[in-house]
């Protein structure tokens, strides 16, 4: 099987997921993994599908038919990388301000950690006023990286940028 990664973006409305799923199914594809969301009135997502190599080009062409409804970009999947190392999952919560994602991702990158999954949102901070930033992050740390050093760096960063970082074990 061939793995394709689809990125989809368009004005949010009912039936968008169904339209993509119908095309994937009609071409013998299998919907593997996805992250889909409505963001500021736009529908956006990333979808991993598998399809036989013989049908991949036809699937790509059929997805082009969604133009005007969704912008779909198709990327060839790289396959599964060997997950040598340890997975670290943590949450970040604090008053929203520019730079939180930049600071956290820089700390991870400096320790050779690769972000596998990240979900962020801002919400109204009911009691304090203003906006609250929340993130859930899963990163893979190479086997030769001292996870304790990464954790210590995240804890120092939390103090510096005034957020709470909670590690899950």
Order of helices and strands: EHEEHEEHEEHE
Structural class: alpha+beta
Q: Count of DSSP E strands?
A: 8
Q: Output the number of helix runs.
A: 4
Uncertain parts: none
What's the overall geometry?
flat
Q: Main β-sheet: number of strands, strand sense, barrel status?
A: 4 strands, antiparallel
Strand content is: 35-45%
Give the mean pLDDT: 92
If you compute it from the alpha carbons, what radius of gyration comes out, rounded to the nearest whole angstrom? 19 Å
**Major sheet: arrangement of strands:** 2-3-1-4
Estimate the helix proportion, in percent: 25-40%
- The span between the termini is 34 Å
What does this structure look like?
The protein is α+β, with helices and mostly antiparallel strands and 169 residues long. 29% of the residues lie in helices and 44% in strands. The protein contains 4 helices and 8 strands; from the N terminus they run βαββαββαββαβ. A 4-stranded antiparallel β-sheet has the order 2-3-1-4. A hairpin with a 2-residue loop joins strand 2 and strand 3 (42-51). The two termini are 34 Å apart. The relative contact order is 0.17.
Give a quick set of tags describing it.
4-stranded antiparallel β-sheet, 169 residues, single chain, 44% strand, flat, alpha+beta
């Amino acid at each position: 099987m061939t793995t394709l990664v689809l990125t989809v973006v368009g004005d949010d409305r009912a039936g968008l997921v169904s339209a993509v799923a119908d095309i994937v199914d009609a071409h013998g594809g299998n919907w593997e993994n996805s992250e889909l969301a409505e963001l500021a009135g736009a529908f956006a997502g990333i979808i991993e599908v598998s399809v036989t190599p013989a049908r991949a080009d036809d699937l790509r062409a059929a997805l082009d038919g969604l133009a005007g409804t969704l912008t779909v970009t198709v990327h060839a999947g790289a396959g599964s990388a060997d997950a040598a190392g340890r997975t670290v999952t943590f949450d970040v919560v604090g008053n929203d301000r520019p730079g939180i994602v930049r600071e956290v991702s820089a700390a991870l990158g400096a320790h050779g950690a690769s972000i596998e999954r990240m979900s962020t949102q801002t919400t109204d901070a009911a009691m304090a006023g203003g906006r609250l930033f929340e993130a859930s992050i899963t990163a893979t740390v190479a086997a030769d990286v001292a996870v304790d050093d990464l954790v210590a760096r995240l804890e120092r960063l939390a103090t510096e940028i005034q957020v709470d970082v909670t590690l899950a074990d």
